[in-house]
Structures are given as C-alpha cells and as structure tokens.
Amino acid sequence: MRRIVYVLLAYVLVVSCSNESENKVTDQDVADTVVEDAPAPINAPPYAVEYDQETQDLNLVRSKENIGKADVDDMLRVINAKYEGIKLDLISSKTDTVNLRIADASKLTQEMGSAGAEAYLAEVTFSLTELPGIKAIKVEFEEGDHAMPGVYTREDFKNVKIKK
Q1: Are 54 and 113 in the same domain?
Q2: Residues 94, 71 within the same domain
Q3: pTM
Q4: Which site among 8, 31, 41, 105 is 20 to 30 Å from 121 CA-CA?
Q5: Nearest CA to 127 among 52, 28, 47?
Q6: Closest listed residue to residue 124, CA positions, set 164, 72, 159
Q7: Could you tell me the residue range of the domain that residue 139 belongs to?
Q8: Element (H, E) at 135
Q9: DSSP strand E in 80-134: where?
Q10: What does DSSP say about strands 57-62 and 47-52: parallel, antiparallel, or unpaired?
Q11: Domains: count for the chain
C-alpha cells in the first residue's frame, strides 16, 4: 500500500512540475507583449510646410504618418527634432489649448524671415490641433521682427493652402 501512495505522490509531483514549466512566462514573452501592445512612436509631424517658388504660396502637406495614440509630448518631440534651434517647452495642456514656451526664439523671430516664421507656426498649430481635443496653441516667446507670441488656431492660417 505504501508503494502505491509513493507512486501516486511521485506522479502528482511530476505532473504539477511539468504544468508549471508549460505555464511559465519568460522575460522575452513579456518583452514581446509590450512591444506588440505599444503604439509605434511617430517620426514626423503630421503636417509639413512646403514653399511653392512659382506661386510663392505656403502649402501645408498632410503626411502619411499615422499619429495613432500620439500625445502632446510625442508631437513636441518630433517638432523639436525637425527644427533645431527652436525648442518648444510644454507649460500645460489641461484644456483645449496647449500652452508652450520658446525660451530662445531668436531663430524664429530674427533668422527665418516672415514666411519662415509663419510656416513654422502653421506647422506647429496644425500638427498639435490634429490631436483629439486640442483646438489652439498658445506660444510664449519674446516678440521679434518676424513673429509674435499669442494664441494660434487653424483659422489664423487661412492663407496657407492645405494639400492632401
């Protein structure tokens, strides 16, 4: 009788150990799951400004970039990467307006010219207002010859043509 009990006990131990190894989750399984569930980071703003030399018009071109679940931080990251020398810092985004600051706006206000400054502000405005719930941006910086601080919406850029 003891022998049967020992055999059954051994069998139960073997079966339970093999089930544990089958159900064991590895670090690689977790890493694969995290990668699959995380949205791909955006690599470019959803809008880019092009200057048409023939017509001398500014055109906003909608990129093929899918913004997915991008947020304000993602958008600022790609804009700041695209425009070295103009660093947008987030102050707040608690309402339908994103509040931003440019500590050193000399490139924007003195070096890009009026068309360049308008193109930059249009691209920033359209890109950030592409995010759900965002209707305007407020940009704080020291006023210069080619750009003024203030609140910007898509309506402020009626002269910029949108190409799809």
Answers
A1: yes
A2: yes
A3: 0.74
A4: 41
A5: 47
A6: 72
A7: 47-163
A8: none
A9: 88-92, 97-102
A10: antiparallel
A11: 2
